[in-house]
Amino acid sequence: MLYQLINSIITVFIMTFGLITNILILTTVRKMSSMRSSFGIITKNQAVCNILMCFLFLIFVGPLQLSDFKPSYESSRFVGLTSMIIYESAAQLNLINSINRFFAVYTIFFYDRIFSSLNTYFMITIAYVISISICVTFYEILGCYLYFESEYWIFSYPESEHCTHLTWYCDFIFNIVLVVSTLILNLLAAYKARKLHRQITSLDQNMMSYQRQRDLNFIRQSFFQGLSMSVALIFYHITAPLINNKILLFLDASLWAFMLAFEGGIILLSNREIFTAIKQKKTEITSSIMSFGLVTNILVWITARKLNSMRSSFGIITKNQAICNILMCLLFLIFVGPLQFTPLKLPYKASRFVGTVSMIIYEIAAQLNFFNSLNRFCAVYMIFYYDRIFSNFNTYCLRNFAIVVSVAMCVTFYEFFGCYLYFETEFWYFAYPEDEHCDSLTWYCDFVFNIGLVVSTMILNLLAAYKAGKLHRIVSDTTGIRMSKDQKKREINFIRQSFFQGLSMSVALVFYRITAPMITDKILLCLDANLWAFMLAFEGGIILLSNQEMLMAVKKKRHGSLVNFIQTNHSMVYFRTDIVSIRTGNLDYVVSNHGRME
């Protein structure tokens, strides 16, 4: 379980980072006039490939690392084939980008005709067609399937002489040739670009400096992208077979996918033009995240109020979580967003008040997350006492307790003791006064307290998920009824929602307290230090993606009854429905019907 947890955290962290950076690159490049060229078209398609790979690992690999569920060979083959097509497409797009830079400096007068927009789209289409053809032919038709190895949580080929030879030449040799060609073209382009700039004397000095920097940005980006892919290939084919440790093997053998996630960071670090354009979008980033959070959490709240299954204790807590998230989004949209694009500086007391309110909302949300995990824990470990512990009246009492504790804590620690949470207008985030007294107070009363809550939440969720899976297996073994595909999805959804909600808050805390003080860049500091608020916005999306019942209700689709397709005796129908209800969060239904099993 420890290996599973560590690997899952690594996967989620890397792929979330990759998802965010590549989405930022895609949205920024689409709006940059200088990126409407052939190079920009290729860069956008690279970002799309990277985003798809991140989604694939977040949706498929991450949840599987936290559960005992083993996907069927056919389904893992399909995911493996898809991931390989994405990887091959990315590798060929890197080569096309390098050819683009090569022609830009060696055939200046023919470059516009060779790499016109039409020709660029044609080359990209050819790359996609070749990738699909190669992967389908070699890995499906010839039988060397890339399947998910559940024991080590990696994608692997069958261990046979035929597949070893095939993958060595069709995967490693083919891709290493692509990557080496990419690196050589980049080095030649860099050499020629420097030579050309030394020869040009007619241009204005500032113009020469700008053009030189821009060309070097493009070449640097292409070079490091090619280098990262070559390293990943060598690790997968050469070093991975020599490793026995599960965590190191997972990291080594998954590096080919992780490198596509890191490409977003590589582009940002190597291409200053894109990085500068993103820095100028600080207001748009805040507004986009909080607008997304506002819409999704309003949808969650409205839908939860109408669902019969959400009239339970679990539903009450979920609705209150959504309200907290909505309030945080409104606070940032009304207060933080406008301040980011105006020179207005609010009085210290006004920003203090907003800071205290935002902290109260955050503390309530953290405690409600803990109560939700406690709710699920009691539902599977204390089934016959659950209705008394989590009656609707007691649930409202717990909610009120969370509100009172949060208000009392924040007013006492941050107002009475003088450690005000004020808005730092220079860097656009909420900060505490920099003195020893406030550092000690906020470390224990903010970071240690909340990290304790979050870790407890995650532990309770994992224990509840384990017990729910065990209960279901007991029922399946005694009745001979196999778990349906819908039930498997519910189990994974339950684990995914529970884990991601806890993980998102823990990551945000670590980022605010540990990494933020090390950052000097304004835009990165703004994103890092405001992540604790952004994560509440993302919770609406997490709930919708994890809870299929709620998502179906939002889409206005009817949800079929589980009882209709279970052909067994009357009492076992109720018990089986109860087990499913544990996973979907309809926990009060479990207890209200447990007497029917007699």
UniProtKB/TrEMBL annotation:
InterPro entries found in the cross-reference section: 7TM_GPCR_serpentine_rcpt_Srx (IPR019430)
TM annotation in the entry: 6-26, 47-66, 86-109, 121-148, 172-191, 222-243, 249-271, 322-342, 401-423, 447-466, 498-519, 531-548
Domain 7TM GPCR serpentine receptor class x (Srx): 13-271, 289-547
Keywords: Membrane, Transmembrane, Transmembrane helix
Domain of life: Eukaryota
Pfam families in UniProt: 7TM_GPCR_Srx (PF10328)
Protein known as: 7TM GPCR serpentine receptor class x (Srx) domain-containing protein
Organism: Caenorhabditis remanei (Caenorhabditis vulgaris)
